[in-house]
């Protein structure tokens, strides 16, 4: 049974206004839910070029490109822009490398075609693939050191997923729709494989344009907590770390720049790696042993009570003490040696 009406009734993400970069910085430090800032990047040269025409936006990007191959995903016509799995759980798109002028020429040739194949350049490092683009088009994020990425494509649909860092997504050209869910809604989004994904993160198997509530009945529960943000060129959306978001490019040509940053030190490991290793080493143990390791994780990780290591002399606590860049490096080296056996 397919019914998309429930998605159309989702409440809008709240909007904020602020006076300057310092106020935005303060809001970001306190935010625990998404918010929209209308016109945050309206003065960017790229935004102004895109308002004149999609071709002017492409010309602007071409003028700043480095002469290097870009990775681009090309989907099939008739897929409604959805970059997803095929019936065999491979990908329904091909990934190739090409120079940006060739990619843009192909995109322009089919821009107005009703059966256009989706073309998508995802998470391209702005500073690595363009010169001067970041300097002319960026948001002041204070003392953060974000990764700036650009996303370029036709009408596309990217399945709901989440990201470890916080995210400020700025629409530069075209229009975007984000459908968002809190972190804890992951059981109701029917996630696919964690080791076979379109872009490195597990994605929802629900088709948001035609949700099947027979196959995915708990998705109705997720919708009770969903929000939607409709963004025009110049608008920005803050997506907190680990919030689930389904992203649609709504115009024939769309460009988004986003900024990712972590509130934790860069030298900390990735939690997904710990989950993958736990699946490898703990999930299939006998129940009594699994319970023991659950208790151990609570003891050392989730509860992290200082009493757990108070009996060890302070200089000898090693990684049981609060981690530093040095002790994290030692632990990472220890893990690499163990995994290589």
Automatic annotation (TrEMBL):
Organism: Sphingomonas rubra
Matches recorded under Gene3D superfamilies: Cupin
Signal peptide annotation: none
Name of this chain's protein: Cupin-like domain-containing protein
Pfam family, one: Cupin_8
PANTHER family noted in UniProt: HYPOXIA-INDUCIBLE FACTOR 1 ALPHA INHIBITOR-RELATED, HYPOXIA-INDUCIBLE FACTOR 1-ALPHA INHIBITOR
Ranges for domain JmjC: 96-276
């Amino acid at each position: 049974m397919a019914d998309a009406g429930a998605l159309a009734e989702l409440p809008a993400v709240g909007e904020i206004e602020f006076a300057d970069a310092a106020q935005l910085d303060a809001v970001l430090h306190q935010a625990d839910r998404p918010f929209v800032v209308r016109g945050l990047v309206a003065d960017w040269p790229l935004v102004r070029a895109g308002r004149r025409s999609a071709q002017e936006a492409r010309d602007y990007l071409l003028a700043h490109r480095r002469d290097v191959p870009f990775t681009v995903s090309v989907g099939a016509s008739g897929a409604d822009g959805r970059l997803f799995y095929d019936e065999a759980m491979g990908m329904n798109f091909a990934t190739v490398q090409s120079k940006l002028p060739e990619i843009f020429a192909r995109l322009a040739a089919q821009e107005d075609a009703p059966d256009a194949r989706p073309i998508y350049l995802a998470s391209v490092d702005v500073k690595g693939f363009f010169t001067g683009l970041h300097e002319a088009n960026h948001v002041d994020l204070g003392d953060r050191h974000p990764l700036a990425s650009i996303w370029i494509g036709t009408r596309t649909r990217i399945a709901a997923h989440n990201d470890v860092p916080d995210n400020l997504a700025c629409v530069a050209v075209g229009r975007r729709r984000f459908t968002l869910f809190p972190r804890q809604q992951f059981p109701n989004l029917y996630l696919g494989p964690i080791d076979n994904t379109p872009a490195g993160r597990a994605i929802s198997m629900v088709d948001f344009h035609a949700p099947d509530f027979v196959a995915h009945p708990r998705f109705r529960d997720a919708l009770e907590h969903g929000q939607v943000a409709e963004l025009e060129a110049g608008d920005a959306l803050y997506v907190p770390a680990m919030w689930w978001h389904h992203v649609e490019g709504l115009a024939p040509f769309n460009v988004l720049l986003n900024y990712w940053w972590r509130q934790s030190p860069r030298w900390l490991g990735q939690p997904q790696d710990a989950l993958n290793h736990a699946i490898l080493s703990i999930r299939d143990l006998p129940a009594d042993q699994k319970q023991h390791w659950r208790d151990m994780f609570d003891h050392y990780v989730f509860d992290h009570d200082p009493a757990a290591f108070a009996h060890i002399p302070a200089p000898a606590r090693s990684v049981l003490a609060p981690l530093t860049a040095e002790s994290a490096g030692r632990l990472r080296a220890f893990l690499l040696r163990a995994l290589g056996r």
